[in-house]
Specification:
five-stranded mixed beta sheet, 398 residues, 2 domains, Rhopdopsin 7-helix transmembrane proteins, Alpha-Beta Plaits
């Protein structure tokens, strides 16, 4: 038995720990890989980019585990395996950061059109690093692997870090710059991903021999997944505004803290049935999407819009904005006029909007009475609309 044990290659203790850590990361990533569709469904771009991030993380964690497993072992075959694992690891690191930047742009804007315009410039650092890593195999200057399969950092080992962190910094700049100008609802805190990813890679970079980058990135991807799952739970898929579930949560908070004083709008899309009947349900869905985008782009910070069912929307305003309910209503009406003036759709949008104040003095019935006031105000406007235009109009003449 002792002779048999002697034939088994001796792996350093820290290498064993590194292998275990990376295999744990692979296991968690595989679970995430099979559960990702709960977040994105069949959306081709979002699903593809997030899937690619997971697959790249699995590749890198696997290569890092393999690299730690064979480090210092003898043999030409082991040498080939070690060189290949490290090359794929560096390439995977860079590609992961590259794809992350694309993913952030998509989440911020809902499409890749903005980055397509600069895709060549965006890709140049990645292409340069790929070239340098390939050259490094034959003329080592970033890292080297000697005949005894021992890895060493060389003078230019900082180059991959600069390019990888550069892509991460780019994603952060995009996030900070456009989060304020592109008004979309997000459960997408950048720090949930960047903080663990940055700390993990920084520790591994500073303390040679510690391998925690990919367990840190696994934590980051799972944190991202949970936040995106919350987004899918509370965002109306069709219109992009909040759904009834989130709106009800906001109602429960009224009367406390910053939400002690509040006002709201109940919005109903006029003649929506006529749009569906005359132009089809696909066009009706398009009208609802337009309403959602209009509300997101128009409402100031501190006001939330929610679709509570069919063509019914609510706007909730809390804090300092509470007295400005009429100003917010005017902003919406002006945005509707500007939308209709463009004549880009086979329909025009028209709202019946009722407004009301939340009164905390109503006590336990404050929420119920608030909704009743909104409902009564909206239907009063709706009755006036029907009196002026008739109960139904042809969608083409709206």
């Amino acid at each position: 038995m002792s002779e048999l044990m002697a034939m088994i290659p001796k792996i350093p203790f820290n290498a064993v720990a590194n292998v275990e850590i990376n295999l744990i990361a692979v296991a968690f990533l595989l679970v995430l890989l099979f559960g990702r569709r709960r977040v994105f469904g069949d959306h081709p771009v979002a699903n593809s980019l997030f899937t690619l991030l997971i697959c790249l993380a699995i590749l890198c964690a696997g290569c890092e585990a393999l690299s730690n497993l064979v480090t210092g072992q003898k043999g030409q075959f082991i040498h080939v395996v070690y060189v290949t694992a490290n090359y794929l690891l560096f390439m995977g690191n860079m590609t992961f950061c590259y794809v992350w930047g694309l993913f952030v742009v998509f989440k911020m804007f809902g499409n890749l059109e903005r980055i397509k315009k600069n895709i060549i410039l965006y890709s140049l650092p990645a292409l340069l690093l790929a070239l340098l890593l390939t050259v490094n195999i034959f003329v080592p200057f970033i890292y080297s692997i000697d005949a005894d399969n021992v890895y060493s950092r060389l003078s230019f080992s900082f180059i991959p870090y600069i390019i990888d962190y550069g892509y991460m910094l780019y994603s952060l700049v995009i996030y900070v710059k456009y989060r304020r100008t592109v008004k979309r609802y997000f459960f997408f805190p950048m720090e949930a991903f960047l903080l663990p990813a940055f700390i993990g890679s920084l520790i591994q970079g500073l303390f040679f021999g510690i391998s925690i980058t990919w367990i840190a990135n696994t934590i980051a991807l799972n944190a991202l997944y949970l936040n995106l799952l919350s987004e899918r739970t509370f965002i109306d898929v069709l219109t992009g505004v909040y759904n009834r579930g989130y709106f009800n949560r906001c109602l429960k908070r009224l009367g406390t803290g910053d939400d002690e004083f509040a006002s709201g709008m109940m919005i109903d899309l006029n003649d929506f049935k006529t749009i569906n009947d005359n132009l089809g349900h696909d066009v009706g869905d398009m009208a609802l999407k337009d309403v959602g985008e209009l509300l997101i782009e128009t409402l100031p910070d501190g006001a939330i819009a929610a679709r509570t069912g069919g063509d019914e929307f609510f706007v909730l305003i809390t804090g300092a904005l509470t007295p400005k309910i009429d100003e917010c209503k005017k902003l919406i009406e002006e945005a509707v006029k500007a939308f209709n003036a463009k004549k880009q759709r086979p329909y025009t949008i028209s709202f019946s909007i009722g407004t009301a104040l939340y009164n905390p003095a109503d006590g336990e019935e404050a929420e119920e009475k608030f909704l009743k006031r909104l409902d009564s105000a909206m239907f009063a406007v709706k009755d006036n609309y029907h009196a002026a235009h008739g109960a139904y109009r042809n969608a083409q003449s709206m």
